[in-house]
Amino acid sequence: MKAEAACYANCLPRQISFKHTVQLCMAMLACSSEGFGDTGKTQLLALIAQRSVGNRCDRVEPKAVKR
Question: Of 9, 11, 22, 33, which has the fewest beta carbons less than 10 angstroms from its beta carbon?
Answer without folding.
Answer: 33
